[in-house]
Each structure stands twice: as C-alpha cells, then as structure tokens.
C-alpha cells in the first residue's frame, strides 16, 4: 500500500531506526513494510530510493530502484517509465568508504523542492540482508554509492540538508551545476 511520505520537520525523520531481528524478516509486519516501501517508491515521480522512516516506520530498512544503476549512463528520457525492480537492504552497514569524495546534486522525497550539493564518498561497500533474510555484500560507485549513503543517513536520522555545501535552484541550473550532475 502506498504510504504518505513524511517530510521535514516530522520528528520521525530525526530518529535512529531500530534493527530488524533476522527471524522477523518473514513476519507480516516486515513483509508489509517492504511492500509499502516498494509501492510508495513506485508512485513517486522522482524517487530512486526510500527508507522506512520516510513512511513512518522506525526500522533499518531501505530500498533502491534498479534505475539507480542507469542514471549516469542513460538520459532520463530514454529510461522512461520502465517497471524497475527494487533492491531491499535490511540492517545495512557500511563496511568501507573511499577516501575520495565527490560533490553531487541531491534532493529528497522528505525535503520536497530543495536540492543541494553534497560531498559523498565515491565508492562504498555495504553489507545487508535482503528481503529473504540472506546476507549480501555490495560494492557500489558513483551515483549508486551516493544513493546508498543518502539512504543510510536516513536510518540514522540524518537528512541531506544537514550535509549540504550549498543549495541550488534547479529552475536556474548553471553550466557549473550541470557539470556536477
């Protein structure tokens, strides 16, 4: 079921989410949370990832659309309205971050209408459980690494606006801002 996306200044967005007991992954509560995250993300126009606190669930779960893998290689128009799969991350933990940080434009479903430049590690390795409770480790770079770090922040009550170097007006993109995308 699609849920209402909580927006700043909702206090739930500032709380640290609780871990999911591995045995509870198959419970109706967690299955429903995952389904609701997927439904809510699919209904959003611009979302590429969403964390459980954004829909009012204080659990360490987020999902990312597989579209995140193609953002840098395919223009938005050619990606169209495909039926993207979603990847589920339960109890994710960052194992490694690259020291090399890159600036990039970020926005957030929970902070509508605001965009800003945020420095993030160019690469990250994360360990998590999938929706069947299987552990996996994933190395990601560039845009996918940025999205994972953004969603990890949500689980700790941190929003991108807490890390922004400067806000940008996307209606007046400058050449300099476009180069950073």
Task: List the keywords.
disordered C terminus; 3-stranded antiparallel beta sheet; 5-stranded antiparallel beta sheet; 181 residues; Peptide Deformylase; alpha+beta; single chain; 4 helices
What does this protein look like?
This protein is an alpha+beta fold and 181 residues long. It is 22% helix and 28% strand. It has a single domain (11-180), classed as Peptide deformylase (Peptide Deformylase), CATH 3.90.45.10. It has 4 helices and 8 strands; from the N terminus they run αββαβββββαβα. The strands form 2 sheets. A 5-stranded antiparallel beta sheet has the order 1-2-3-6-7, sandwiched between helices. It has a 3-stranded antiparallel beta sheet with strand order 4-5-8. β6 and β7 (135-141) form a beta hairpin. The longest helix is centred in the N-terminal third of the chain and has 16 residues, at 28-43. The radius of gyration is 16 Å and the shape is globular.
The helix/strand class is: alpha+beta
Domains, number? 1
Number of strands: 8
Largest beta sheet, briefly? 5 strands, antiparallel
The CATH class assignment is Alpha Beta
Rounded Rg = 16 Å
- Beta-strand proportion: 25-35%
- Principal-axes geometry comes out as globular
Identify the strand order in the major beta sheet: 1-2-3-6-7
pLDDT below 50 for ≥5 consecutive residues: which ranges?
Answer: 174-181
Topology as H/E string? Answer: HEEHEEEEEHEH
Number of helices: 4
Assembly status: single chain
- The CATH topology name reads Peptide Deformylase
CATH architecture: Alpha-Beta Complex
CATH level 4 superfamily: Peptide deformylase
Percent range for helical residues? 10-25%
Mean pLDDT: 91
């Amino acid at each position: 079921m699609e849920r209402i996306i909580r927006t700043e200044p909702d206090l739930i967005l500032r709380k640290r989410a609780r871990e999911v007991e591995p045995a509870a992954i198959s419970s109706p509560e967690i299955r429903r949370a995952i389904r609701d995250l997927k439904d809510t993300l699919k209904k959003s126009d611009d979302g590429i990832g969403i964390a459980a606190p954004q829909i009012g669930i204080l659990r360490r779960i987020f999902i990312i659309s597989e579209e995140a893998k193609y953002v840098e290689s395919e223009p938005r128009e050619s990606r169209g309205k495909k039926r993207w799969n979603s990847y589920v991350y339960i109890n994710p933990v960052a194992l490694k971050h690259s020291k090399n940080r890159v600036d990039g434009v970020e926005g957030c479903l929970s902070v509508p209408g605001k965009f800003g430049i945020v420095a993030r590690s160019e690469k990250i390795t994360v360990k998590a459980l999938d929706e069947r409770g299987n552990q996996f480790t994933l190395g990601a770079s560039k845009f996918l690494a940025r999205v994972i770090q953004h969603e990890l922040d949500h689980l700790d009550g941190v929003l991108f606006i807490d890390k922004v170097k400067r806000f940008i007006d996307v209606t007046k993109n400058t050449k300099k801002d476009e180069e950073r995308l």
